Amino acid sequence: MIVPNLHYAELQDSYFFLRISEKSEAYLAAHPGEKLYKMGIGDISQPLCPAVIDALHQAVADQATMEHFHGYLLESGLHELRETIAKHYASRGVTLSPDEIFISSGAGDDLGELLDLFAPESRALVLEPAYPAYVDTNIMSGREIIHLPASCDCDFLPEPDEQIDADLIYICSPNNPTGAVFTREKLKTWVDFANRRGAVILFDAAYEAFVTDPALPHSIFEIEGAPTCAIEICSLSKTAGFTGTRLGYTALSKELVRHGMSLNAMWLRNRTTRTNGVSYILQKGAMAAFSPEGRRQIESQLALYRENASVLSAALDQTGLWYCGGKNSPYLWMQCPDGMKSWAFFEYLLHEIQVVGTPGIGFGDCGEGYFRFSSFGNPKDTREAAARLVSLLKR
Length: 395
Hints:
38% of the residues lie in helices and 15% in strands. By secondary structure, the chain is α/β, with parallel strands linked by helices. The model has no long low-confidence stretch (mean pLDDT 95).
């Protein structure tokens, strides 16, 4: 008899976002003609920029000619794309070679598959509230998980606890769901902690493009000591609207060595064994996203999302409720009023003002009593939702 992976039975209900969708649909069914203002979704609302679309079209045309046709590519990505990303890092003072960059079909894929590099008995530390996949992928691997809860007392930016013995450390900055961003100083404490312990930081930089404050880091590799303890996972999903197009990249320095084994070499071996890489068409689209014209066009879209965040921040400022995020981040994380639980507040907003957000409890137990708003929505809807929030919460 085939024995399934019994760790899947340990997973909690994975239908959190489905539950939000079902509640929204049930409301609309009971209230025909009503409109919902969806401020909870993490997906983008703007299309791919013209430079990327042109590149995708040209890449499709390339595949129709003998002269430009491409079959199998290097599993770790086109050299020209990896070189372009290395230059992007260099513009921020980070030195990485193209063979320290690996192209993937998205950050979500790499966050799960990177666990193949580590022994099952390694212990994972998750700073919570956190993206649920950090926990779920480790449960699937049968790995012990240590939960480090944060609170508003530290602005949801916890510091290392010397009593914790962990091998893997998950850090997301700007953070999903809280919108909090680690300063260089606070990130340095985690880098030093990891190097002292021989731990490895899995640094989720999916939202780094939203950082505009020059005092804040975009990459963990801007921090001294990071190459010997960190792996950085990046995405074009939120940066360039690739949520439906799927492309990301992981940066893994050759300096990262454990037990005499190079994790860079291990990851290269993993990729050449377990994947045939990302399509030529998508990689050419990504090349355009890093071009000067592509960057200019993408920046105008990022500015739109940043303005949405400013509108929501201004609304929450008027309510007097505690929140963080909204600056250098596309997410806002607010404390529910009057001690309300997360799902109760969800129902309150849905039924009173038709605004849909994300209950904080979905990101870990310490998210209970908090609520996430996203700035990725339509600008007109965002302004209307913000006005409704002010009207409701100032009563």
